[in-house]
Amino acid sequence: MFAKVLQRTVRRSFSSTSNAAKEIKKIGVVGMGSMGHGIVQLSAQSGFEVVAVDLDQNVIDHAMSSINGSLDKLQAKGKLSEEVVAAARANITTSTDLGAAAEDCDLIIEAIVENLPIKLAFYKDLGGLTKAGQILASNTSSYPITEMANASGRPEDVCGLHYFNPVQIMKLVEVVSTEHTSQQTVDAVTAYVEKTGKVGVPCGDSPGFIVNRLLVPYIVQGVAMVARGDAKPDDIDLAMRLGAGYPMGPITLSDYVGNDINLAVMKGWVERFPNDPAFQAPEAMELLEEMVAAGKLGRKTGEGFFKWEGNKRV
Ligand code: 3HC
After folding, report:
1. Residue 84 pLDDT > 90
2. Mean pLDDT of 263-275
3. Whose Cα sits closest to atom 35 in ligand 1?
4. Residue 141: CB within 6 Å of ligand 1?
5. Which atom of ligand 1 is nearest to the CA of 77?
6. Whose CA is closest to 17, among 192, 185, 131, 135?
7. Please, are residues 148 and 119 in contact by the beta-carbon 8 Å criterion?
8. Is the full-model pTM beyond 0.90?
9. Is the minimum distance from the CB of 42 to ligand 1 under 6 angstroms?
10. 159 phi and psi, to 5 degrees?
11. C-alpha–C-alpha distance, residues 69 and 65, integer Å
């Protein structure tokens, strides 16, 4: 069985085909939350033309202010030259009109709200607004790419590109293919990922792909320890930093990623796999529900298990 799986993954990631992969030049990124605007910045500073799309102009304005602030800092630290920063700014346009924005994009990366029915409706629309050969990629944390691909009406052009928080820093992108994803699609997005300086790891369309399948249950088990009073949040974090070498403990990481995101991922899995013990953590779910209802989403709202100012705990 292992050999079979390995064979499938290797074929998907490295085989060459007679049809050369399409070169990606222009990218649309839809959804200007923290992941979406991180992907816009990364692509623009790597030389790609990018259109940043959101329904809400205020959200776009906030995203652009974060991108501009981050580019300023990178230039001030000497990590990016003045020329690269100027080119990155010039590479970005914005739009609230998905149809017009998507028209001439080679790749459209979706980073909208983590809600499957909303994503499926979005892919149905996007499939109609774009044409064969335009690649559609989801940055979903945990939902099945296959369902989005089917909703689009042309599953061969659909894959997952799963980025990690903070997008500007984390080196990995999971390149998720379904059984319908064409090799040209995989090759084209893999080349794009490499040009942005990231490492693309190929994987199949299983729940949580590689990282979140391991990381989210770990975070949620940490939250369950808080809920049961097994240990204090800071002590759980310190233990995992010093005992397991993690850069952040699970409770800080829950705040960092967003308590709403971790809750949405786990809820989705519990609904889809009610008998899988790996996804059962009722105490944690209850605590996360309470925190989300109280607006304690973590870093992005300034408070979660801890208090935050920008990217730092206070
Ligand atoms: N944006 C841009 N740059 C950032 C940043 C951000 N949000 N956060 C930190 N940085 C930069 C800092 O400016 C600093 O740059 P410098 O070296 O030029 O000064 C560098 O990163 C290191 O930052 P700090 O010194 O402040 O702090 P750390 O050394 O602790 O690093 C960290 C911060 C990189 C976030 C590190 O703590 C870490 O790796 N944490 C774990 C992150 C993680 O696990 N991410 C995955 C989450 S799962 C996910 O995203 C999937 C999703 O589907 C849920």
Report:
1. yes
2. 92
3. 166
4. yes
5. 18
6. 185
7. yes
8. yes
9. no
10. -145, 180
11. 6
